[in-house]
Design the sequence.
C-alpha cells in the first residue's frame, strides 16, 4: 500500500480523538481557556450530558477579530512566549482544543475585546469555518458546542448514559473550582438545580471555604492544614483526619501549579503518608497543591494534560509524605466530628421522622418480651416505676464516681479540663464513658490502648531497639509448612521488634522471646496472625512498611482487651496517655478510638434546644 498524505479533515479528527475524549473533555478545555483569559466568573450549561449542547460563558478579556479568526486554526495559541515549551505557565497552550472540538461538532464562538467596538462571532461545523460576523456580547467570551461527535459517529457510540456524562462534567467543574477559589463558577442544565461556587476570599481561609463548598461541610470541619517547602517546591492544601475516609480514591484531588492532575507519583505519596493510619480498603480525602518553577515540571506529557513529569520526582514525593505526616501528627488526637453525628443519629428513635408526629412507645427497643409494658396498678410502684424498670440496663461494669468523690472535688474539676475529660464509668467492660466541660466522650479501651502500644513500639525501635523478655519455657506453635517457611524467612525483621522465633522441627516454631512492652500476651495467637500477614506481603514493599505491619499486629495483641474490667485510676490513666500519644484519634487499623458528643447535640436530641 503506497504512502500518502491524510486529508486535513482526517488529521483534525485524529487530533480531536486525542484531546476530546468525552463531553467533560470539552468542558475542561473551555474552562481552562476562560481561566487563562483572566475570567472572574464562569458559567457552564449542558444538555444531554454535553452531547447535545455545551455552553461556557466567561467575563475574561475576550479576543479581537484577528485573534478570533486564528483561534480555530490548529496549533495557534497566545499562551506560549518565544516558543518556550519548558516554562509553561498557562493551563491551555497546545492550540488544539478549539479546532479539535470544531472538527467533530458544531462550534460557535462569540467574543469581545475591550479594544473592539463590538463583539465578533465565528462558527466551525465539522472542520469548516464560517466567515466572521458581528455579534452582541458585552464582554468576555461565549462558546457553544452542539451535537458533539456528530461528525465522528463511531466515537459517539462509545459515550455513556447522559447521567454518567453529566456527572463527569460536574467532576471537571469541581476540580477546576477547587484550583481557583478566587473565581466564581456555576453549572446548570440536565433538569437539576444549578451548582454554584461563589468567589472566595484570598488566602488559606478562602481556599478552605471553597474546598468545603465542593467536598462538603464534613471535610471543612475535619481538615488539617498541610504546608511544606524545600528547594523551591511548595506543598499547600488540606487533608482530612484519618477517621474521615472513603471506600475509593475519588476523594483525592491533586494540583500542580493550579493544574488538576491524576499523577501516580502523587497518589502513591498520599497512600504512603496515610499507611500508618488507615486499613488497606479505606482511602483518605485530600486536596493538595504543588507549586514549583515551571521549568521543573513537564506538563506536555499527555494530550489531555492530566499527567505531569517532575524533574526531581523523589524530592516531590518525599516532601508530600513529610508534609502530610507532619500535619496529621499535629492534630493526631482529634477524631472526626462525623463520629459524634453518627452516634447522635443512632440514638434518635427510628419512628421519629419528617412524616411522624411523635415517638411511638410501642416501637421501643426496651419493650418487654410480653409485647407491652405492665399496666398501671399491676405492681405497687405504679406506671412510672414499671417504665423505669423496663429501661433498667443494670449497673455499669465499673463506676468511677466514688473514686472521684474520695479523691476530692478539686481533682475531679481539674480532670474535666483535659481534652478527654474525667472517667465516669466503664460499660460492658469495653467502653469508657468520660465527662468533659461541654459534653461527654466514649472511648474504646482496646482501640485506644492499641494505638498507645503501637506508638511506644515505634519509638522504642527508633531510639534503642525494643527490649525483650526471655520466656522461661519456649512456646511451641504448630504452623502450616508454607506459613512456617515464610515466617522464618522474616525472622530477622521480627527480631527487631523483640519477637524471637526459631524453627522447631517440621511444621512448628519455638517462640523464645517477646517484647517486654507487651507484657503477658497470647504468643501463639500473635505468631499465627503474623504468619497470615506475612503471606500477603509484597517483597517490593519497603522494609519500614513491613516492620510497621509487625508492630501493628503486636500492638493489637499486647493492648487492653475488650471485656477487661478497669479500675477508675486505670481508666483515667488511659485517657491521659491518649492525650499524650501521637495519632491517638484512631487505632492502627484506622478505626476511631473515641467519639465525642457535645452537650448542645445531646440537648437537641432531648428537645431542650
Sequence:
Amino acid at each position: 500500500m503506497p504512502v500518502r498524505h491524510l486529508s486535513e479533515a482526517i488529521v483534525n479528527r485524529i487530533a480531536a480523538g486525542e484531546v476530546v475524549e468525552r463531553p467533560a473533555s470539552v468542558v475542561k478545555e473551555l474552562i481552562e481557556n476562560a481561566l487563562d483569559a483572566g475570567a472572574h466568573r464562569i458559567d457552564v450549561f449542558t444538555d444531554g450530558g454535553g452531547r447535545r449542547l455545551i455552553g461556557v460563558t466567561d467575563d475574561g478579556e475576550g479576543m479581537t477579530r484577528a485573534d478570533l479568526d486564528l483561534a480555530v486554526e490548529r496549533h495557534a495559541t497566545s499562551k506560549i512566549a518565544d516558543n518556550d515549551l519548558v516554562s509553561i505557565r498557562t493551563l491551555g497552550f497546545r492550540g488544539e482544543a478549539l479546532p479539535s472540538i470544531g472538527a467533530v461538532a458544531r462550534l460557535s464562538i462569540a467574543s469581545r475585546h475591550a479594544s473592539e467596538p463590538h463583539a465578533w462571532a465565528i462558527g466551525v461545523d465539522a472542520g469548516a469555518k464560517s466567515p466572521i460576523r458581528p455579534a452582541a456580547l458585552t464582554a468576555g467570551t461565549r462558546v457553544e458546542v452542539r451535537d458533539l461527535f456528530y461528525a465522528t459517529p463511531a466515537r459517539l457510540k462509545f459515550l455513556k448514559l447522559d447521567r454518567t456524562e453529566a456527572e463527569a462534567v460536574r467532576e471537571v467543574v469541581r476540580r477546576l473550582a477547587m484550583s481557583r477559589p478566587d473565581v466564581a463558577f456555576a453549572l446548570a442544565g440536565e433538569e437539576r438545580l444549578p451548582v454554584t461556587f461563589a468567589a472566595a476570599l484570598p488566602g488559606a481561609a478562602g481556599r478552605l471555604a471553597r474546598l468545603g463548598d465542593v467536598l462538603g461541610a464534613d471535610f471543612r470541619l475535619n481538615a488539617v492544614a498541610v504546608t511544606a517547602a524545600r528547594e523551591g517546591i511548595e506543598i499547600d492544601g488540606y487533608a482530612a483526619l484519618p477517621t474521615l475516609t472513603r471506600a475509593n480514591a475519588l476523594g483525592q484531588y491533586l494540583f500542580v501549579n493550579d493544574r488538576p492532575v491524576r499523577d501516580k507519583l502523587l497518589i502513591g505519596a498520599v497512600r504512603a503518608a496515610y499507611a500508618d493510619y488507615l486499613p488497606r480498603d479505606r482511602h483518605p480525602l485530600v486536596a493538595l497543591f504543588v507549586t514549583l518553577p515551571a521549568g521543573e515540571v513537564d506538563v506536555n506529557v499527555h494530550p489531555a494534560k492530566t499527567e505531569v513529569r517532575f524533574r526531581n520526582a523523589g524530592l516531590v514525593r518525599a516532601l508530600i509524605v513529610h508534609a502530610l505526616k507532619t500535619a496529621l501528627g499535629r492534630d493526631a488526637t482529634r477524631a472526626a466530628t462525623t463520629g459524634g453525628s453518627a452516634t447522635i443519629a443512632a440514638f434518635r428513635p427510628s419512628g421519629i421522622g419528617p412524616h411522624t408526629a411523635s415517638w411511638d412507645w410501642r416501637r421501643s427497643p426496651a419493650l418487654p418480651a410480653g409485647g407491652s409494658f405492665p399496666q398501671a396498678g399491676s405492681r405497687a410502684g405504679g406506671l412510672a416505676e414499671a417504665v423505669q424498670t423496663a429501661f433498667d440496663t443494670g449497673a455499669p461494669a465499673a463506676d468511677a464516681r466514688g473514686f472521684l468523690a474520695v479523691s476530692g472535688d478539686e481533682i475531679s474539676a481539674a480532670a474535666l479540663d483535659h481534652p478527654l475529660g474525667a472517667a465516669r464509668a466503664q460499660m460492658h467492660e469495653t467502653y469508657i464513658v468520660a465527662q468533659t466541660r461541654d459534653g461527654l466522650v466514649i472511648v474504646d479501651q482496646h482501640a485506644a490502648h492499641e494505638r498507645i502500644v503501637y506508638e511506644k513500639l515505634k519509638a522504642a525501635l527508633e531510639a534503642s531497639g525494643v527490649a525483650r523478655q526471655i520466656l522461661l519455657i519456649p512456646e511451641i506453635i504448630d504452623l502450616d509448612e508454607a506459613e512456617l517457611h515464610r515466617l522464618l524467612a522474616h525472622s530477622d525483621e521480627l527480631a527487631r521488634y523483640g519477637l524471637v522465633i526459631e524453627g522447631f522441627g517440621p511444621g512448628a516454631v519455638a517462640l523464645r522471646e517477646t517484647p517486654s512492652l507487651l507484657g503477658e500476651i497470647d504468643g501463639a495467637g500473635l505468631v499465627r496472625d503474623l504468619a497470615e500477614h506475612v503471606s500477603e506481603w509484597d517483597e517490593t514493599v519497603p522494609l519500614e512498611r513491613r516492620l510497621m505491619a509487625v508492630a501493628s499486629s503486636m500492638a493489637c495483641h499486647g493492648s487492653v482487651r475488650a471485656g477487661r474490667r478497669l479500675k477508675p485510676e486505670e481508666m483515667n490513666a488511659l485517657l491521659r496517655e491518649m492525650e499524650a500519644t501521637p495519632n491517638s484519634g484512631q487505632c492502627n487499623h484506622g478505626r476511631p478510638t473515641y467519639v465525642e458528643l457535645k452537650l448542645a447535640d445531646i440537648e437537641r436530641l432531648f428537645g431542650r434546644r
About this structure: The CA atoms of residues 46 and 54 lie 5 Å apart. The first helix runs from residue 8 to 19.
